[in-house]
C-alpha cells in the first residue's frame, strides 16, 4: 500500500505538470515542470521525502530498462539519421560536458556553503 500511495503522488505531480505544459504557452517540457514541482514541494516541506522515497528509488533502479525502447528506436532509424550522426555525437558530448561541469561546480559551491555555515555555528 505504501508504494501505491507514493506512486500516486508521483503520478499526480506528473499529471499537474502535463496540464501546466498544455496551458502555459512556453516551450518547457512537462517533465521539467514536474521536477520543479517535486523539488519545490520537498524544499518547502509540503511533501516529505519519506512520502515518495521508496517509489522514486524503485523508478531509479529500473531506469536503464526504460531506455531500451528509445535505444531500439535509435537503431531502427539509423538510416535516416546517419547523415547527421557526427553532429549528434558532438552535441551529446558537448552538452554532457557542460552538465558535468555545472553539476560539479554547483556541488562544490553547496558543500563550501554548508561548511561555512557549520564553521559560523561553531564560532570560527
TrEMBL record:
Keyword Membrane on entry: yes
Topology class, membrane: Multi-pass membrane protein
Keyword DNA damage: no
Any Gene Ontology CC annotation: plasma membrane
Cellular localization per UniProt: Cell membrane
Pfam families: LrgA
InterPro entries on file: LrgA/CidA (IPR005538)
Keywords on record: Cell membrane, Membrane, Transmembrane, Transmembrane helix
Residue intervals passing through the bilayer: 7-24, 30-47, 59-79, 85-111
Name of the protein this chain belongs to: LrgA
Organism (species): Trichococcus palustris
Amino acid at each position: 500500500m505504501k508504494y501505491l500511495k507514493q506512486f500516486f503522488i508521483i503520478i499526480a505531480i506528473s499529471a499537474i505538470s502535463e496540464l501546466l505544459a498544455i496551458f502555459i504557452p512556453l516551450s518547457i517540457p512537462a517533465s521539467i515542470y514536474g521536477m520543479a514541482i517535486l523539488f519545490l514541494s520537498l524544499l518547502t516541506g509540503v511533501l516529505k521525502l519519506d512520502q515518495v522515497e521508496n517509489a522514486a528509488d524503485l523508478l531509479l533502479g529500473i531506469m536503464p530498462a526504460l531506455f531500451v525502447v528509445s535505444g531500439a528506436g535509435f537503431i531502427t532509424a539509423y538510416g535516416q539519421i546517419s547523415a547527421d550522426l557526427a553532429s549528434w555525437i558532438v552535441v551529446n558530448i558537448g552538452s554532457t560536458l557542460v552538465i558535468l561541469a555545472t553539476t560539479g561546480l554547483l556541488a562544490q559551491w553547496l558543500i563550501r556553503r554548508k561548511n561555512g555555515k557549520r564553521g559560523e555555528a561553531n564560532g570560527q
